[in-house]
Write a structure and sequence with these properties.
The complex is a heterodimer. By secondary structure, chain A is an alpha/beta fold. Chain A has 14 helices and 17 strands. In chain A, strand 8 and strand 9 form a beta hairpin. In chain A, helix 1 runs antiparallel to helix 2, helix 2 crosses helix 4 and helix 11 packs antiparallel against helix 13. Chain A is globular. By secondary structure, chain B is an alpha+beta fold. Chain B folds into 4 domains: 167 residues, 2-Layer Sandwich (Heat Shock Protein 90), CATH 3.30.565; 69 residues, Helicase, Ruva Protein, domain 3, CATH 1.10.8; 141 residues, Ribosomal Protein S5, domain 2 (2-Layer Sandwich), CATH 3.30.230; 64 residues, no CATH class. Chain B is 40% helix and 18% strand. Chain B has 16 helices and 14 strands. Chain B has an 8-stranded mixed β-sheet with strand order 5-4-3-6-2-1-7-8. In chain B, strands 9, 10, 11, 12, 13 and 14 form a 6-stranded mixed β-sheet that branches. The longest helix of chain B is centred in the C-terminal third of the chain and has 53 residues. Chain B is globular, with a radius of gyration of 30 Å. The termini of chain B are far apart. The chains are: A alpha/beta, B alpha+beta. At the A-B interface, helix 1 and helix 2 of A face helix 13 and helix 14 of B.
Chain lengths: 359, 554
């Protein structure tokens, strides 16, 4: 209900301003990499304090009305303890007459604005994302509840056969039971499949989580809660390319510029980068692809602007090494040596040798 | 030898068939040169020639013109055309020559801004009538209220180009003065773009001082009343300028002149030739100034023309050309077209080949004009509408060569602009250079092309200004409508969020509206109201030709 109070307070402030014959304005943090700071003690991207105001003018009056109406929908949903997907929110707006959204991206933006303005995450506002969050297999029992009876349900992730447990869009109510020693987060579904098939989790006594590209908020929150709850370290295994380093791993560990106001909840500060590092490419003689122009640009950009990279000397060296090598390598590249080389040699080696990791 | 003999025989044989043909005979075989290509056009051309003459005569006599045109359907593709004016009348002796002798006229040898130029038009119409119906033209003319009117029936002898007068007599006529001509001819009557109605309407637009009464074959009468009592300024006759001189004409002038010496000849017969200019020309041509023009040869004439080209001679006086005037043009176009924006421009006088001319242009935009069609072009030369051969006319080419994209209209490369737009161009000159005797398109002269372009550009710039102003206003209005549209949503959201009462909500609406509109300031309305527009007038000539439709039905 804190959220409802926040919403009402803001609405009252706007109302008072209008009664004073002053143009009201909405204030929200600027959501970009330029407006975040990284402090390894906190462990995630924190807002740097730059705000933008949306004053009520003729040009902004439509968005202004939409923002207030969206706040109202959020208040209704929270009060009714219901939820609404982004797509549903877009359809709800169809009742707003002239103020309705024409396309979903418009409603998504307004939703992000409300979220940032109130400095809460959208789940607290009653909005849930469409996207599904990642697959889980291994030494873990997830404690959930039956939606109707509220009875406890235990899901044993060792008994998923060749399949996996799917992270739900809201993970706040989940409990965990585990004896695992660590969590291994994997970029691609293909690699995850291989590890599940050969019960890699049993051999190493761990929990496997497939990220499926840049992890969703739910997936990030799941890993964070699991790691916090059970004091488990998190190892991340992605392709050895700029996207794997700076989009997938960086976002998982410290959050993003766009969602900086909620990074606090959605980061996994104790995650560590296992591989594939540029040094691994050399050490394991991996088949490679040349870096594309966009890859090089992304690396240079990271070296110049990413507060996370700027904080970690080791990452700077790694990115520079990749720029010199001018190549990238995929997770699956180990198959060149042997299909199961990655399980029998690479991962066990790496898990033992912390010195080869990146922070 | 034998071969040579044969050739000579053939030549003699041929010579038997070679004989001079009369002008009249030539034109009777080349009707299209005079605008009689087909029966439909013949009707229009005849009306046009008669009306042009009437207007010229009235203006010369400083009489406010009142012209009536009647077309009677005689059946079997025959029409009778009766055109009557209140002009000064024609003296008895001249009547046959004016109406039934080709190339007879007062205008050909003088340079004066007038509608007729060569003295062909009306005689050609008489000839066309007689060739197609076998009937003579009937002319009535009266020059003074105390004198009787002169009546005669005329036929043109196509062999000799001489008038044949029949049944001449003095009659009583109700008018104080004026002329009436009646011609029977084979024709097709059609309405639409290139019809008599359109021609008369456009004539009325650029001749606001004339009253025109038209009775069509179905006995419908249309009156185009005079809108101003002011006659166009009297046009002065000027002598030709040396720069426009051609060899043939010069040799003819040698024969006719009364000047005793060549130097005198140059000074008497041409404008802007002073003693010193004449001396300079003659020195360059190596002709002694005292030579008599009558002894000069063709070679000397050529030398003279070359010398003229090398001599710097002041431009001819330009006060001999009077434009319709931007204001009147705009009024005319307003009457015809219900648009939202009008502009016009009159260029300062310019000169091509020694002939002074003035270009005027007017432009109407938007309103009821069709949005996706090519701009309509209205062309006029010395106050005469040009309805045919638009594509061959320099005005059309100049307009197509003007970049209208920068003024906010669409324009396919090298074509006329596309959009809700009408462009009117008028050329006034002592000698309008038509591409043919039928006077339908203006010939290509660089100076004319340039002037048309400049005049059209001037209108275009005004249009551009208007359109960008309109766009700014639209954006502003859109923003304002945003205020009206979305403020209720702001207040409604607040009402839902913090349970406002209806009064409080209304209060929010009012405060916000004041607040937002205050910051935007007052807006200036740019709407034009066209009080001149005359819907009935605009309809004239606008209907689709009925005959075409019938053909489609069959």
């Amino acid at each position: 209900m804190v959220v409802v109070e926040k919403i009402k307070k803001l609405a009252n402030k706007i109302f008072d301003k209008i009664l004073d014959h002053e143009s009201p304005s909405l204030k929200m943090p600027i959501r970009s990499l330029n407006n975040v700071e990284y402090d390894s003690n906190i462990g995630y991207f924190k807002l740097a304090g730059k705000f933008k105001g949306r004053a009520l003018t003729a040009s902004t009056v439509k968005t202004f009305a939409q923002t207030l109406l969206m706040m109202n929908e959020s208040k209704n949903v929270v009060e009714k303890k219901d939820m609404m997907t982004k797509r549903e929110a877009y359809y709800v707006s169809k009742n707003w007459g002239d103020a309705r959204f024409n396309e979903q991206p418009e409603s998504d933006t307004v939703m992000d604005d409300v979220e940032a303005m109130l400095m809460v995450n959208r789940e607290q506002l009653g909005f849930v994302p469409e996207e599904k969050g990642g697959d889980v297999a291994g030494q873990l029992v997830v404690v959930d509840k039956d939606p109707d009876t509220n009875e406890e349900i235990k899901i044993d992730c060792t008994k998923m056969g060749s399949g996996a447990y799917s992270v739900p869009s809201s993970v706040e109510g989940l409990g965990f039971e585990t004896t695992a020693k660590f969590i291994l987060a994997i970029e691609t579904a293909g690699m995850f499949q291989r590890l599940v098939k050969h019960k890699f989790w049993k051999k190493e006594n761990c929990i496997l989580i497939s990220l499926g590209g840049v992890p969703t908020r739910a997936c990030r929150r799941f890993i964070r809660r699991l790691s916090d709850d059970k004091k488990l370290p998190v190892y991340v295994f992605t392709d050895g390319d700029p996207y794997g380093f700076l989009n997938i791993y960086r976002t998982l560990k410290v959050g993003s510029g766009n969602a900086a106001h909620i990074n606090e909840f959605f980061c996994v500060p104790n995650a560590q980068y296992l591989g594939v590092t540029p040094q691994d490419i050399l050490d394991y003689k991996l088949p490679t692809h040349p870096l594309k122009d966009v890859d090089q640009k992304r690396l240079k950009d990271g070296l110049k602007n990413d507060p996370f990279v700027l904080h970690h000397k080791k990452w700077q060296l790694a990115l520079k090494q990749m720029l010199t090598l001018k190549v990238r390598a995929e997770q699956q590249a180990f198959a060149a040596h042997d299909l199961n080389y990655v399980m029998s040699v690479y991962l066990p080696d790496k898990i033992k040798d912390h010195k080869t990791w990146l922070p | 030898m034998q071969i040579l003999a044969e050739i000579q025989t053939t030549a003699h044989e041929l010579a038997k068939h070679q004989k001079s043909i009369s002008v009249a005979e030539f034109f009777s075989k080349n009707r299209h040169l005079l605008g009689f290509d087909n029966p439909r056009k013949a009707l229009l051309t005849t009306v046009k020639e008669a009306v042009d003459n009437s207007l010229d005569a009235c203006e010369e006599a400083r009489i406010l013109p009142e012209i009536s045109i009647e077309i009677i359907d005689m059946g079997g593709d025959r029409f009778r055309l009766i055109i009557e004016d209140n002009g000064p009348g024609i003296v008895k002796k001249q009547v046959p020559n004016i109406f039934a002798k080709l190339l007879y006229g007062s205008k050909f040898h003088s340079l004066k801004m007038s509608r007729g130029q060569q003295g062909i038009g009306i005689s050609a119409s008489v000839m066309y009538g007689q060739l197609t119906t076998g009937r003579p033209a009937k002319v009535t003319s009266k020059i003074h209220k105390d004198k009787p009117a002169y009546y005669c029936e005329l036929v043109l002898d196509t062999q000799t180009n001489e008038p044949d007068i029949k049944n001449e007599k003095n009659i009583d006529w109700y008018r104080d003065h004026g002329t009436k001509i009646e011609i029977d001819l084979e024709a097709i009557y059609q309405r639409g773009q290139q019809s008599v109605e359109t021609y008369l309407k456009e004539t009325a637009i650029v001749n606001p001082h004339a009253t025109i009464i038209y009775t069509d074959p179905k006995a419908n009468q249309i009156i185009f009343p005079r809108v101003t009592d002011e006659l166009p300024a009297e046009t002065k006759e000027i002598k030709p300028h040396p720069y426009g001189l051609e060899l043939g004409l010069l040799i003819k002038m040698f024969e006719r002149t009364t000047a005793k010496t060549i130097q005198q000849f140059l000074m008497d017969e041409f404008s802007r030739v002073t003693t010193s200019v004449a001396k300079e020309i003659l020195e360059k041509a190596a002709i002694p100034p005292k030579t008599s023009p009558s002894v000069l040869t063709r070679e000397s004439a050529e030398k003279l023309i070359k010398a003229i080209k090398k001599t710097k001679i002041m431009n001819p006086p330009t006060d001999c050309v009077t434009p319709v005037g931007a204001e009147l043009l705009e009024r005319g176009i307003k009457k015809e077209i219900n648009a939202e924006f009008y502009t016009s421009a009159t260029r300062p006088p310019s000169v091509y080949r020694g002939n002074p001319f003035i270009i005027e242009a007017a432009l109407a935009y938007g309103g009821e004009l069709p949005k996706d069609k090519q701009a309509k072009i209205m062309r006029f030369a010395n106050r005469v509408p040009l309805l045919y051969q638009q594509g061959a006319c320099i005005t059309t080419k100049s307009i197509a060569a003007t970049n209208f994209k920068s003024y906010g209209l669409n324009q396919p490369r090298g074509s006329l602009p596309v959009g809700p737009c009408v462009i009117l161009v008028h050329i006034a000159s002592v000698w309008v250079p038509f591409t043919s005797e039928s006077k339908e398109a203006i010939a290509h002269y660089e100076e004319i092309e340039k002037e048309v372009k400049l005049a059209v550009q001037e209108c275009g710039r005004q249009l551009g200004k208007y359109l960008s102003k309109k766009q700014r206003l639209n954006t502003e209005l859109k923003k304002r409508s945003y205020i009206e549209k979305y403020i209720p949503h702001v207040s409604k959201a607040l009402k839902l969020l913090i349970d406002l009462t209806d009064d409080q909500q209304e209060n929010v609406n009012e405060i916000l509206k004041d607040l937002l509109e205050e910051t935007r300031g007052k807006i200036k309305d740019i709407k034009h109201t066209n009080t001149e527009y005359d819907a009935d007038f605009a309809k004239i000539g606008a209907e689709e030709p009925e005959d075409d439709n019938e053909e489609e039905d069959e």
